[in-house]
Design goal:
With about 270 residues, the chain is an alpha/beta fold. The protein has 10 helices and 8 strands. It is about 35% helix and about 15% strand. An 8-stranded mixed β-sheet has the order 3-2-1-4-5-6-7-8, with helices on both faces. The N and C termini lie far apart (about 35 Å).
């Protein structure tokens, strides 16, 4: 494709990187990324991917903007309170970069619709805030051979890992079963510092960019954790044997998608 003068200026800091260059920027403009959750994680991920020039961004979220969201969900504004999060995000993305086509899904992602939602996308970002959604996204991506990046945040901490089909472990390899109800503190129990969402959501965007351009080493087979109070990152190697996994193992017992039940975080979409 031929770049316009405006595009050459807009993406000049990418193009001068030898790892990205013109070809890498073309890949980004031709790429499609789906972000499930337009909250604390989805906000920085969406803004950075839009700024990077990802050609199509899908945004899935059933919620509306609340004032309590604005402490961390930086894609939304005070004026957007009460409005659909996906439409609020679409306006912000379009204002930032008109090259990006935004597809909105103002609906709950569940076992009956997730396969249809993810099928047209090259990379999936799990920016949700509850275990039922995370297990569903993992299973759907594994069964449909879609690469995705998982992340979770609470209080002053966060974690992130990437799954690539046929390479490394999936979310269920590490967290095998849904935790019992109330076993894990929610955001409403423990709170969340907004900047942690910014750090981890930005890392999710970086994982997408690396995958789409083919540069660097993705977080496959590793879990990256972040402790903001200690200003400390840790990389934890994950077990390499996936044969016993219920969804990506040699003899999977999960071959169809199921909706799981657990009380979600009262402060939704991280």
């Amino acid at each position: 494709m031929d770049f316009t003068d405006e595009q050459l200026e807009r993406y000049s800091r990418h193009i001068i990187l030898k790892e990205i260059g013109v070809k890498g920027q073309q890949r980004l403009l031709n790429s499609r990324v789906l972000i499930i959750g337009a909250g604390g994680l989805g906000s920085p991920a969406a803004l950075y991917l839009a700024a990077a020039g990802v050609g199509r961004l899908g945004i899935a979220d059933a919620d509306n903007v609340e004032i309590s969201n604005l402490q961390r969900q930086i894609i939304h504004t005070t004026a957007a309170a009460g409005q659909s999060k996906v439409l609020s995000a679409q306006r912000a993305i379009n204002a930032l970069n008109p090259d990006v086509k935004v597809i909105t899904f103002h609906e709950f992602v569940n076992a009956s619709n997730i396969a249809a939602i993810i099928k047209d996308y090259d990379f999936i970002i799990d920016a949700t805030d509850n275990f039922p959604s995370k297990f569903l996204i993992n299973d759907a991506c594994v069964l449909n051979k879609k690469p995705f990046v998982h992340a979770g945040i609470v209080a002053f901490t966060g974690q992130i890992m990437t799954y690539l089909p046929g390479s490394g472990v999936c979310f269920r390899c590490v967290f095998q079963e849904m935790p019992p109800k109330d076993a894990v503190p929610t955001c409403s129990d423990s709170g969340i510092i907004g900047a942690v969402a910014g750090v981890i959501g930005s890392l999710q965007a970086m994982e997408a960019v690396k995958y789409l351009t083919g540069v660097g080493q993705p977080l496959t087979g590793r879990l990256l954790t972040y402790d903001a109070l200690k200003a400390e990152f840790r990389t934890i190697p994950l077990p390499s044997d996936t044969t016993a996994c219920a969804v990506c193992g040699k003899n999977p017992t999960i071959t169809a998608l199921t909706d799981y039940e657990q009380a979600p975080c009262d402060i939704k979409n991280e």
